[in-house]
From TrEMBL, chain A:
PANTHER family, A to Z: AMINO ACID ABC TRANSPORTER PERMEASE PROTEIN (PTHR11795:SF445), BRANCHED-CHAIN AMINO ACID TRANSPORT SYSTEM PERMEASE PROTEIN LIVH (PTHR11795)
Gene Ontology CC annotations of this record: plasma membrane
The UniProt record lists the keyword Cell membrane: yes
Keyword Transmembrane helix annotated: yes
Family according to the record: Belongs to the binding-protein-dependent transport system permease family. LivHM subfamily.
Name the UniProt record assigns to this protein: Branched-chain amino acid ABC transporter permease
From TrEMBL, chain B:
Protein name per UniProt: Amino acid ABC transporter substrate-binding protein
Family recorded in the similarity comment: Belongs to the leucine-binding protein family.
Organism of origin: Pseudothauera rhizosphaerae
Signal peptide positions on this chain: 1-25
Keywords, sorted A to Z: Signal
């Protein structure tokens, strides 16, 4: 096997996949860090975002132009879900919210199945052969995916570090009571968090959909690698989620060298177990679970 | 009226209703379990419609037993063992069905049979569970299928490829009862015929990228990929990624890959080197009758597994009629109505069959998908054809021997 084969068929797919996991994992890490619960509906919210984009593409929009709009719509849906289900349970033990999120996951999936059906579909029919960049084979959609992920990560990082609301979110993540005493409106921060999480879900779902197919179980299958990525990087850390996503994506693709291919899906699980055993704070020192 | 009298009155009414019930309880319920969601979701509606057609014909032509109706309870087995067990449990324990048509997928059939229907003594006839594992089930003669085992299909596919001059292939299979069963049968026959398997690996459902799996398989140097998977699921992802990267030149699928979803999302112009095998009904008067009736009912008789789905439901109805609604006699009755000798009954001829059974005559159902002469394990031999993509659908190019 040549170096180029290794890059083209193992590393590049791993990085593209990892970038998608990363966007999903950022959402999980934000919910975990700021709202302090494991959001099991994340995968199915991702599916919903992908289908919202599909509906927009159905009206004749270019898929990449539909993405920002789908992110806004899914953000609104995420706020709605929080208001309808999670807000109501805020005073109860967190485990109740966790279980409720599992129920929300099933509901979201059923809505998708009722509205759009269960057949796999695509944003654009046909196949795209890759372009050759000095031996590296890349499709335009993969370049756009990587570009969009970079944009999202840098934008979010800037927002969290520089803006007033970003700082408020970080404050609430560190200590909600102290943040409230300092004048941070917890309710608004919660809403803002859900808006960002919803938008990230739509982005992850769309990018997975455009690189493979759009179907009603796509997000659910993503849940394990996304959680593994968030925990691997360190819960509550955006850079950690990105790093974790890339590690999980690349590890899955490279696992076929040492393991039979049917154990590929177990790679994320194995990584998750390993990091919990060896370094429970994650690579970048997140919260302890 | 005080409360006690009302209660007594209500009680006696209820009692009367219960006593009176058997005289009217001629209706018989059967379960229709299918992969409505999950990886064969695009195939399931046609299959269910074909089964419903059989039931509708029964009810139009005199109903079942003494003027009763055959009722169906639809359950979603989702093509996976957990959902199949849930759906079968609900059908058997809550809806009290005495037989089920389906589940559709092999893993679902094995789970539902092992944990629900066989212990409950409920007859199960699957129209599409093709794994060789189903043959080996310890089923107290309660599990039958109107589709033949993949042992036949895998071997027939191996012989067909040899006949087409392919001597070296890579095999990718979905790691479940369906994919694995096919792959093993294919490999045994292909290697026995002197072919070379240059790559052989299973994969899990639901991953986003299979390019590294494909790259590993392609390293063996084969230019043909044999893909045992579902065209509504991972099979589509794998086929797309293989085509986009040019890992192989020719792609061969089995019945699970013969899905319209593949053509719709990849495009016929990109599928000129994609072929698939699938069971077909042998040309017969029975098949013509079914095609006519199903077309008239708005169905597409060319959709995969519609013939077997129709036959499964019709056979179950015949068996119930023959057994007089007695659950314990169903499997024996099924063998009697399906096997020679006897007066031939064709699809849709319910009134005739009902009359013959009433007269105590032996009947032999000649189904749309074949004669259905069940062997010891409840299996039937099958006929297969080799398909290519043509326009928006599949076109048979040759019989498979």
């Amino acid at each position: 096997m040549t170096l180029l084969d290794f890059l083209n068929f193992y590393l590049v797919p791993g990085i593209v996949l990892g970038a998608i996991y990363a966007v999903g994992a950022i959402g999980i890490t934000l919910v975990f860090g700021i709202l302090r619960f494991a959001h099991f509906a994340h995968g199915d919210m991702t599916t919903l975002g992908a289908f919202v984009a599909l509906a927009l593409v159905g009206t004749g929009m270019n898929p990449w132009a539909a993405l920002p709009l789908a992110m806004i719509i899914t953000a609104a849906i995420a706020i709605g879900v929080d208001r309808t289900f999670y807000d109501y349970l805020a005073k109860r033990p967190k485990i109740v919210t966790v279980m409720a999120s599992l129920g929300v996951a099933l509901m979201l999936r059923s809505v998708v199945q009722v509205v759009w059906g269960v057949d796999p579909t695509t944003y654009a029919s046909g196949i795209v052969r890759p372009n050759d960049y000095f031996g590296i084979l890349l499709r335009p959609r993969e370049l756009y995916t990587l570009g969009a992920v970079a944009l999202i990560v840098v934008g979010l990082e800037l927002f969290l570090r520089r803006s007033k609301w970003g700082k408020a979110m970080r404050a609430m993540s560190d200590n909600p009571d102290l943040a409230r005493l300092s004048g941070v409106d917890n309710r608004k921060v919660t809403m803002l968090t859900w808006a960002i999480v919803g938008a990230l879900c739509a982005a992850a779902g769309f990018m997975l959909g455009i690189n493979t197919e759009v179907h009603s179980m796509m997000g659910w299958h993503l849940l394990l690698p996304m959680f593994a990525a968030a925990i691997l990087g360190g819960v509550g850390r955006v850079q950690g989620a990105v790093l974790g996503g890339l590690v999980v994506g690349v590890a899955e693709e490279l696992s076929v060298f040492i393991l039979p291919a049917q154990y590929k899906a177990a790679t994320a699980f194995a990584l998750l177990l390993l990091i919990l055993l060896v370094r429970p704070r994650g690579l970048l020192n997140g919260k302890v679970l | 009226m005080n409360k006690k009298t009302i209660a007594a009155f209500a009680g006696s009414l209820l009692g009367a209703a219960l006593l009176a019930a058997p005289a009217h309880a001629q209706n018989v319920r059967i379960g229709l379990l299918g992969g409505i969601s999950g990886p064969i979701a695009a195939m399931a509606p046609s299959m269910l419609d074909a089964s419903r057609l059989a039931i509708a014909q029964v009810n139009e032509q005199g109903g079942i037993l003494k003027g009763g109706k055959l009722e169906i309870v639809v359950g979603d087995s989702a093509c996976n063992p957990q959902n199949a067990t849930d759906a079968a449990t609900k059908a058997v324990n809550i809806d009290r069905v005495i037989a089920t048509v389906g589940p559709h997928c092999s893993g679902a059939v094995l789970a539902a049979a092992n944990s629900v229907t066989v212990p409950a003594g409920v007859l199960l006839v699957t129209p599409s569970g093709t794994s060789p594992e189903i043959t080996k089930l310890n089923d107290k003669d309660l599990v039958f299928r109107t589709v033949s085992s993949d042992d036949y299909q895998g071997r027939a596919l191996a012989r067909t490829l040899k006949a087409r001059g392919t001597t070296k292939v890579a095999v990718a299979y979905l790691n479940n009862d369906y994919g694995k069963g096919l792959a093993e049968a294919f490999r045994a026959e292909f290697e026995a015929g002197g072919g070379v398997i240059a790559g052989y690996s299973g994969h899990e459902d639901g991953k986003a990228s299979y390019r590294s799996d494909l790259a590993q398989l392609a390293r063996g140097g084969a230019d043909t990929l044999v893909l045992f998977d579902y065209g509504d699921g991972t099979g589509l992802t794998i086929l797309r990624q293989a085509l986009e990267n040019g890992f192989f030149k020719t792609y061969i699928g089995a019945d699970g890959m013969k899905s319209e979803a593949v053509i719709k999302s990849i495009g016929a112009q990109n599928l000129t080197t994609f072929f698939s095998s699938a069971p077909v009904g042998e040309a017969s008067a029975a098949l013509d009758l079914f095609r006519k009736a199903f077309s008239a009912a708005g169905g597409n008789p060319d959709a995969i597994f519609t013939t077997t789905s129709y036959d499964a439901a019709f056979l179950v109805a015949l068996a119930i009629e023959k057994a007089g609604g007695d659950k314990a006699k169903l499997s024996q009755a099924l063998r009697e109505v399906a096997s020679a000798p006897g007066e031939p009954v064709l699809p849709g001829e319910w009134a005739k069959a009902k009359k013959l059974i009433a007269e105590g005559k032996d009947i032999d159902y000649k189904g749309a998908a074949g004669d259905h002469e069940f062997d010891q394990a409840g299996d039937v031999p099958g006929a297969y054809a080799f398909f290519k993509v043509s326009g928006d659908t599949y076109e048979a190019i040759s019989e498979m021997k």
